[in-house]
Amino acid sequence: MAGDVLSQSEIDALLSAISTGEMSADDIKKEEETKKVKIYDFKRALRFSKDQIRSLTRIHENFARLLTTFFSAKLRTYVQISVASVDQIPFEEFVRSIPNMTLINVFEVPPLDGNILMEINPNIAYSMLDRLMGGSGSSYSNVANLTEIEQKIMKNMFERSFDNLREAWETIAEIDPILVELEVNPQFLQMISPNETVIVISLNTVIGETTGMINICIPHVVLEPIIQNLSVSYWMQSNTKEATPEQATMLEKRVKQAELPLVAELGTTNITIEDFLYMNIGDVIQLDQNIEEPLTLRVGSIPKFTVQPGKRNKKMAVQIIAPLEGGDEDE
């Protein structure tokens, strides 16, 4: 069964058989070695490949980093968010796995169809709320009694966090997340069929001394139109795509408009720190450059041309005499 994912009921059955002595670990191993028929649970259809799961993991690792920065600034305390796991399970199993009373953001992601869920563990939700209200970030679970003001505060914070989700997803799709509902009881969620496959991204979250999980539930129907964008070939093509002629022309135009500092050096010299400390107005500094020799013109910090000084339209100017040898090597 290497590579297979057991449901909670299968795990409970195995543990029960071992604990009661009906089956030993060696018996299970021997049974697996002789087993030739693989049982497929049609209620637990695997709709995503390992390649697509890895892509979703990368996307939400970036999202976790963005959320860490966002919540740290908003809550003004230590926040650390990281991806704990990415699994595909039936929607019914996801609903059973989260607390009976929790904080669930339901939001749309146009132009994609369907809704995405973001479930925030009550400990984390109340720690966030306590920090936003000026507290120390202590946690106490009483989600069912959220006041309208508290719900509004939480909605506003998570609506602002959607900018991070939009940025994390921009590699596969341009989305515009819109919060449509804040729910506290998962039993009231009837957005898809119980047997529909969903991707659940679990984010391990630490806020001060409080720890908990943030779970993002994405139904297969939402990702179906862009499923091909999750393949490695798409990522490689997007990373190696050549610029179009219009993009190349625009880039060349922008580069030509970039400003460069030009410096005409009259000469250089070295002095001691003591001389520098006692320098006054009217002191003369002798340079190592003869006034009859041409000057060096630097582009940025790189010497490029020899020039001679003069005036043009009553302003100081220099006239280029010749390019310096080796002046193009550092371009």
From TrEMBL:
It is a peripheral membrane protein. Residues 254-323 form the Flagellar motor switch protein FliN-like C-terminal domain. One of its GO terms (molecular function) is cytoskeletal motor activity. Keywords: Bacterial flagellum, Cell membrane, Cell projection, Chemotaxis, Cilium, Flagellar rotation, Flagellum, Membrane. It is found in: Bacterial flagellum basal body; Cell membrane. One of its GO terms (biological process) is bacterial-type flagellum-dependent swarming motility. Transmembrane segments: none annotated. The keyword Cell membrane applies. The keyword Cell membrane applies. NCBIfam families: fliM_switch. Belongs to the FliM family. This is Flagellar motor switch protein FliM. It comes from Ureibacillus yapensis. The lineage of its organism: Bacteria, Bacillati, Bacillota, Bacilli, Bacillales. The gene is fliM.
